[in-house]
């Protein structure tokens, strides 16, 4: 039996005057499972969906699709390029967990890291072990003191080249690295959130890229 890979990356595609939401749901053999505006389509390489999406190639690691001559490579290891959608803004939808928190996967230095949305955090906040895993350079970072629930502690302020969540990619994002194991999960703070549009809809948090 061929392995089935589930992916959660989605992106917006502009078709004429109407933007479609396309999501890669899985890869198996030379076929890909796509979801187009809620409709699931299983395509083999070379086939076109009723919505006009052509699957050019599918492997166990990625799928290449084409719409009206424009190509996009959907990988299992990297986020979708927002530049593919020209007429529509990239959008990320986050459902609240059982505690009411919004969790998402972000990409920093080419590595995936879980983050929790925290509108009370000034910047993206990492603990020290996570910063080391991501290869963040603290040698040139500014040493600061921050106030946490555990009291005043040492931290480092630095600038991230880019942070990518779904189809939203921002450059030059401020971050803070704490010198201990706090916070237990990376906090997605306002150095990122203030640069996107946010909206809550029935327990779902929408993040939209700005033009």
TrEMBL record:
Protein name: TIGR02281 family clan AA aspartic protease
Range of residues in the leader sequence: 1-19
Organism name: Microbulbifer okhotskensis
SUPFAM superfamilies: Acid proteases
UniProt superkingdom: Bacteria
Biological-process GO terms, alphabetical: proteolysis
Family annotation (Pfam families): gag-asp_proteas (PF13975)
EC numbers: 3.4.23.-
């Amino acid at each position: 039996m061929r392995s089935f890979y589930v992916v959660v990356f989605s992106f917006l595609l502009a078709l004429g005057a109407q933007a479609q939401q396309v999501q890669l749901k899985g890869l198996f053999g030379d076929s890909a499972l796509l979801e187009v505006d809620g409709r699931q389509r299983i395509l083999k390489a070379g086939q076109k969906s009723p919505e006009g999406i052509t699957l050019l190639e599918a492997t166990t690691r990625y799928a290449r699709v084409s719409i009206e001559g424009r190509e996009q490579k959907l990988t299992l290891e990297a986020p979708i390029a927002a530049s593919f959608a020209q007429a529509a803004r990239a959008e990320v939808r986050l459902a609240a967990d059982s505690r009411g928190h919004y969790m998402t996967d972000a990409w920093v230095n080419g590595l995936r890291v879980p983050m929790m949305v925290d509108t009370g955090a000034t910047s993206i906040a990492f603990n020290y072990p996570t910063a080391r895993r991501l290869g963040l350079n603290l040698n040139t970072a500014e040493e600061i003191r921050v106030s946490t629930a555990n009291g005043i502690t040492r931290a480092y302020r630095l600038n991230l080249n880019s942070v990518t969540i779904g189809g939203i990619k921002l450059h030059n994002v401020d971050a803070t690295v704490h010198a201990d194991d706090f916070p237990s999960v990376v906090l997605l703070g306002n150095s990122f959130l203030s640069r996107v549009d946010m909206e809550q809809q029935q327990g779902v948090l929408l993040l939209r890229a700005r033009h």
